[in-house]
Write a structure and sequence with these properties.
Helices cover about 10% and strands about 50% of the residues. By secondary structure, the chain is mainly beta.
Length: about 160
């Protein structure tokens, strides 16, 4: 998108959802649709400090405090998958079921359904070797984890608000 345009108009339900430079849209997508077009995982919720109560019932930890309605985003490359519950510094951990694993260029895009709460979809990018080693086929239950430092929250009451 950045290489082909100096302005981006994101349409959603027949209306302009965002009209800005490619860099501005990438830095602060205005809607979940805009963020998904950028290839990001998107979770909506209400922030109170570094905790975000997700609309789907879960909780997400972010590194930078925010307040009010936010979109929490992170790239699929920030998601780590394991068979056993992860230990370590990643504050966000979910049990998830693999919906499908799709080979793409140098990675495998894993489509996940979170099972620890009401089940929002997530995407993870892993190497082909990791996909094989973990047995990432439809129906496989895994753990997905994301460090709070990999999550960006956008909204009217965050420092990143536009």
């Amino acid at each position: 998108m950045r290489a082909l345009a100096d302005r981006v108009v994101v349409l959603e339900a027949g209306r302009v959802a965002q009209d800005d430079t490619p860099a501005a849209v990438a830095e602060a997508p205005a809607t979940p649709h805009a963020a998904r077009l950028l290839g990001l995982n998107v979770l909506a919720g209400t922030a109170d400090g570094t905790d975000v109560r997700l609309d789907d019932g879960g909780v997400l930890v972010i590194a930078e405090a925010a307040h009010g309605r936010v979109l929490a985003t992170f790239p699929p490359s920030a998601v780590t998958l394991t068979v056993d519950e992860p230990v370590g510094s990643a504050r966000n951990r979910w049990r998830a079921t693999v919906r499908r694993a799709v080979p793409r260029e140098a990675v495998v895009r894993v489509h996940l359904h979170r099972t620890a709460d009401t089940g929002a979809e997530l995407y993870a990018d892993v190497t082909r070797g990791a996909a094989t080693e973990l047995g990432l086929e439809a129906g496989r239950v895994v753990w997905a984890s994301v460090k709070a430092t990999e999550v960006t929250a956008f909204g009217a009451a965050t420092r990143d608000a536009r």
